[in-house]
Write a structure and sequence with these properties.
- The chain has about 200 residues and is mainly beta.
- The protein is about 5% helix and about 40% strand.
- The protein is built from two helices and 15 strands.
- A hairpin with a 5-residue loop joins strand 4 and strand 5.
- The chain is elongated.
- The relative contact order is 0.16.
């Protein structure tokens, strides 16, 4: 058994039958606030390391969930190799890059960041924008050679130089591949493979 009630029936009975939508779709593009990078210098080894780029931005709606929208591109200043990274987590604007021994060494820079909200409104941030705002945009990737000194345990190593590219501002981590750095070999960095001379060395 079926009963039909149409709009005129509702009107005749004094029933509500209209809905007014106020406002409409959001049209404002996302506002970029800042970029942070958890590692700006990475010594590659046997295991992968994750570099996380975190974008702080504001918008009236949520971010698009499509992996093809919220992206960033980084490139190697020497080889020209580039990589596009999709947003990796929600609700945050995190972009994760897995760095390992196959990653081209040298200086990598953020070329651009694209932010898209649920309404399709888009904001582009390029490298020059980051530079003008004093935001971080470079990551240095390099490898170190090492050996086990005769007087050391197998878990202790001596750094003997760079394997390929050597940055001017060199940071030697306390551990490499799970082994503890206990010394630096004589004249290990007397002829750096990078451009110019090493200006600073930190342990």
């Amino acid at each position: 058994n079926t009963t039909w009630i149409n709009k005129q029936d509702l009107k005749d009975q004094g029933q509500p039958y209209e809905v007014e939508i106020v406002g409409g779709a959001e049209t404002d593009a996302p506002v970029f606030n800042s970029l942070s990078i958890d590692k700006t210098s990475v010594v590659v080894g046997e295991s992968s390391q994750i570099v996380t780029f975190t974008v702080d931005a504001t918008d009236e709606s949520d971010w698009s969930t499509s992996s093809s929208y919220n992206k960033m591109q980084i490139s190697n200043t020497t080889s020209g190799a580039y990589l596009q990274i999709a947003r990796s987590s929600s609700p945050f604007l995190d972009f994760e890059w897995s760095v390992n021994s196959a990653t081209a060494d040298g200086v990598w820079q953020v070329d651009w960041i694209r932010l898209v909200d649920m309404g399709g409104n888009t904001t582009w941030i390029n490298k020059q924008d980051l530079k003008d705002q004093g935001q971080p945009y470079e990551i240095t990737i390099y490898a170190l050679n090492y050996s086990v000194p005769d007087s050391a345990r197998p878990s202790e190593i001596e750094v003997t130089g760079c394997d390929g590219f050597c940055p001017n501002d060199l940071v030697i981590p306390s551990t490499i591949d799970g082994k503890t750095v206990v010394s630096i070999g004589a004249e290990s960095f007397s002829a750096p493979a990078g451009d110019g001379e090493i200006s600073s060395l930190s342990l």
